[in-house]
Amino acid sequence: MRRTSSLSRKEFLAKLAVLLAGVPLLGGVFRTRKGRGEAELKEADYYAPHSHGG
Amino acid sequence: MSKDVVCGLCPKACRIPEGAAGDCRVRVNLGGKLRATTYGRPSAVHVDPIEKKPLNHFLPGSGAYSIATAGCNLHCRFCQNWELSQRSGPEMDARFRAEPAQVVAEAMRTGCRSIAYTYSDPVVFYEYVYDTSVLAREKGIKNVLVTAGYINPGPLKRLCEVVDASNTDLKYFDDGLYAKYSDGHLKPVLDALVLQKKLGVWLEVTNLIVPTINDDMGQIRRMVKWLARELGPDTPLHFSRFFPLYQLQNLPPTPEATLLKAREEALAAGLRYVYIGNLHGHPAESTFCPKDGKLLVRRVGYTVAELHVKDGKCEYCGTRIAGRWNT
Question: Among B12, B158, B257, B266, which one is least packed by beta carbons within 10 Å?
Answer without folding.
Answer: B257
